[in-house]
Specification:
The chain is an all-alpha fold. The protein contains 5 helices and no strands. Helix 3 runs antiparallel to helix 5. It binds heme C. Keywords: Heme, Iron, Metal-binding, Signal.
Amino acid sequence: MKTHTLIVSSLALAISCSAIAVEGGNPKKGKHLYKKHCKACHSQSAQGGELTPMSKTMAQWDRFFQRNKHKAKPEVFQGLADKALLDIQQFLYNHAADSDQPATCG
Ligand code: HEC
């Protein structure tokens, strides 16, 4: 019985992570891209410091991607396709501090 509940709830989590109402970006791809392109510099001991979706609010993430565009190191954003950036933005936005699912999939 317990195992069954566990399977059902993790299944629900997996579905909710991928079935969020998106605005053009693919958060599932975004998560993968984030790990690939951002994590190297954004972990506790790295130069960019620890960064998770929960580090910012939804509005802050939008502002970061629309205006700041990674000013600290512009070459990071310049090296990524618009679609990839949109996917990453969507992933971070969907799991922002004030989202329905703060960092649950981060
Ligand atoms: C080459 C290393 C590097 C990579 C790759 C990188 N960053 Fe950064 N990032 C930095 C550094 C360095 C800073 C400045 C940190 C500081 O100000 O202390 C920064 C700052 C930031 C900030 C601002 C932090 C704040 O406190 O507001 C955000 C948000 C951010 N990066 C997101 C990203 C995202 C998203 C990606 C992947 C697309 C990414 N970074 C990839 C090095 C990197």
